[in-house]
Design goal:
The structure is a homodimer. By secondary structure, chain A is an alpha/beta fold. Chain A folds into three domains: about 170 residues, MoaB/Mog-like domain (Molybdenum Cofactor Biosythetic Enzyme, Chain A, 3-Layer(aba) Sandwich); about 80 residues, Alpha-Beta Plaits, CATH 3.30.70.2860; about 140 residues, CinA-like (Maf protein, Alpha-Beta Complex), CATH 3.90.950. Helix content of chain A is about 40%, strand content about 25%. Chain A has 15 helices and 17 strands. In chain A, the strands form four sheets. Chain A has a six-stranded mixed β-sheet, with helices on both faces. A five-stranded mixed β-sheet of chain A has the order 14-13-15-16-17, sandwiched between helices. A four-stranded antiparallel β-sheet of chain A has the order 10-11-9-12, covered by helices on one side. In chain A, a hairpin with an 8-residue loop joins strand 6 and strand 7. In chain A, helix 2 runs parallel beside helix 6. The interface between A and B is large, with 103 and 104 residues.
Chain lengths: ~425, ~425
């Protein structure tokens, strides 16, 4: 088969239907397909039920040239994806020696005992190609069929294991190169990421650009406090490789959104803040209260963060604020632990404690319920540097405990990136 | 309509098909439906495309009595769910005054300016009931139809907003009571949560119970290092309200899985560890290195955590380990920052610093790449109490940076719960 015009993603697992697992696999694969220029118009989730699984396969195959299925390749009796795929195509399962050897090696390498059910994972549909699993036991399956039906009727089914780490590594290393070579168009997307302005208001700022957009297209994406615009240029086969229309519109959107646009590209707000610190060879430390370590966790999520992040204190009690940061107990008494004054004292003390160029502090009421007669969602964030307090925010966040903490983290990184960008 | 025998979940949004957003909404609704005794056999994701959205609605309605749709109720032109639902049913959209007033009030209350597009959100399909949105602007929609077709052909479509906080609050407060009254059976599920043993091995331990299970059923759920078994008893209408078979099997599974079973119920591993500390009125502090604040973030995710968690230090550099915790630089030099010796010194110093009953330390190589000639995935965790080091683990985690950090966090909480449970 030469060209994959569209794909569908099928996720198999009763745990998905029961709401026990969030379907991160579909999001990952969808993102990779989009980047490769293969549109996908439907995702389906179905349980470990033979009839319903075959029904979904049949529908997906009727609509799309490529169907990617995740889950149900495990060793247990509930795992029936290979079986059902074989049955759907009227093929039998065959024992794949190479996969069996890999499974045995996986267990002996990790010093664990193999249970007999694990060898079931070496059974794959006849005529398919096993995809080695470098992170686990279940091989993937690549199945081309319908080639006898003539061009346009050829189909591909790819089965991938459900555990995200196994699936991702198999997808990136084995599936992506295969499907990229069969994509109908080349696409180039750019993302303009914004913070500090709502979806509607941001859209109003570029309304005319959106209304006029054909190719490239402009689309907004928002979720829980984070927003971005995606600009996508589709390049048909044989067309000139000219990105200038894309770059022009991206620049225009960026200019209009001004200070709210923190990134053109793929970096998150923490990554942008981290890179700004890293470029200047400057260091930061953290004094967290209501965020409890979340800002440090986000920073250290970035490989190489130790060059910038020297450490932090999580001072969750008044006593620890006094004891670790040497904050004046009278100050806390007078203004409250959740106050501008305490936030400033936290940042300044923390900076001295760690000897960093900057220090950021957060103190607030995450809720549920008020504290010190301040309502849940009251958060003070302070950024200190050698010049003293260089940035400060008092927030009233109208969200639940999780939302208050999440928005506090994003605001903290936004303050760092604004300060270091001179906004 | 009296009884909803099954439901389907439809998620609308090009951002889902593009992989920009993970579909947490479907997981949430699926979990709530399952708990309410309404099975769902299919979830679908579709983009903001009128034809394809109507096609999905038509398929879902043909299979299930209740179809819950999320997303596409926003103010932008891409948001077409109400429109498409009305078109699918051959109805028109009508302006709902009450919803319009609520939208206006939402903006004036939060001191923000309303953009004209927001009033579009007050347009709902004729004959439907608007569900007030207490966390945002878009009302939900409840639509009963087909009642003229006779019993069994009656259908319900419910439209909910896409932002998770708005959707969840609307679902819990308005949708759940409505559908609970229409569930065909009462179900009771119990979850036995385990840690420290793989899926296959755990299943082998209760193989005969699984093979024999009819009602209650036993099903395993595993994701990224966490595993559980769900035992579900289905009680048909008119049947005696007798849970003894459920309780008996749960107890048997729990007994067989022994020390690996940390919870029968809904509590996560951090919550179990937290509750054990809380029950004993004991406090803990944290000294994190490679986890960078994640353990503190997980603890403070629990409302009321300040009673137990006094604070922590994130000592991401050798210098901060020495400076904040007073660890001997020679010790770090001799054994390395990633070593049993350093982990023990971190926990013991941290306990003194915060004056807590316990202190837990983590130091490791999250990767990518080795450090101090130790491979990525090498992690030392130490739990100290008045008696000194009471628990210690040396881990070799064969995962990526994220996985190493996540498994370190889970192991940390597992050590706390084992220690406090006397295992």
């Amino acid at each position: 088969m030469k060209t994959i015009y569209s794909a569908e993603i099928v996720s198999v697992g009763t745990e998905l239907l029961m709401g026990q697992t969030v379907n991160t696999n579909a999001a990952f694969i969808a993102g990779e397909l989009a980047a490769a220029g293969i549109p996908s118009y439907r995702q389906s989730v179905v349980g470990d039920n033979p009839g319903r699984l075959q029904q979904v396969l049949s529908e997906a195959v009727s609509r799309a040239a490529l169907v990617i299925v995740t889950g149900g390749l495990g060793p247990t009796e509930d795992d029936i994806t290979s079986e059902c795929t074989a049955a759907f195509l009227g093929r039998k399962l065959v024992f794949d020696e190479t996969s069996a050897d890999r499974i045995k090696a996986y267990f002996s390498d990790s010093g664990r005992e193999m249970s007999s059910s694990n060898l079931k994972q070496a059974m794959i549909p006849e005529g398919s190609v096993a995809l080695p699993n470098v992170k686990g036991t279940a091989p993937g399956v690549l199945l081309e069929f319908g080639t006898d039906l003539g061009p346009g009727d050829e189909k591909i089914i790819i089965l991938l294991p459900g555990p995200p780490s196994e699936m991702r590594s198999m997808f990136s290393e084995q599936v992506l190169p295969y499907i990229e070579s069969k994509a109908p168009v080349r696409m180039r997307s750019e993302y303009i990421r914004i913070f500090g302005i709502g979806e509607s208001a941001a859209e109003e700022m570029i309304r005319d650009l959106i209304d006029d957009s054909v190719n490239p297209t402009i689309a907004p994406y928002c979720s829980d406090g984070e927003c971005m615009f995606r600009v996508t240029l589709t390049k048909l086969e044989g067309a000139a490789d000219d990105d200038s229309s894309l770059l022009r519109i991206v620049q225009e959107i960026r200019d209009r959104l001004g200070e709210y646009a923190y990134e053109v590209g793929n970096r998150s707000l923490p990554e942008v803040a981290f890179d700004l610190l890293s470029e200047r060879n400057e260091t930061i430390s953290l004094a967290e209260s209501c965020t409890g370590g979340m800002i440090g966790a986000a920073l250290t999520d970035i490989p190489g963060s130790s060059g910038v992040f020297k450490g932090g204190v999580t001072v969750y009690s008044n006593d620890s604020k006094i004891r670790l940061l040497g904050i004046d107990g009278d100050l806390i008494e007078k203004y409250g632990a959740v106050s501008r004054e305490t936030a400033e004292a936290m940042a300044c003390s923390c900076m001295k404690l760690f000897g960093t160029d900057h220090s950021l502090s957060v103190t607030g009421v995450a809720g549920p319920g008020e504290s010190e007669r301040k309502p849940a969602g009251t958060v003070f964030i302070c950024l200190a540097s050698a010049k003293g307090t260089v940035a400060f925010r008092e927030l009233k966040i109208n969200r639940d405990r999780n939302g208050v903490r999440r928005m506090s983290v994003l605001n903290a990184f936004d303050m760092i990136r604004r300060e270091l960008s001179g906004i």
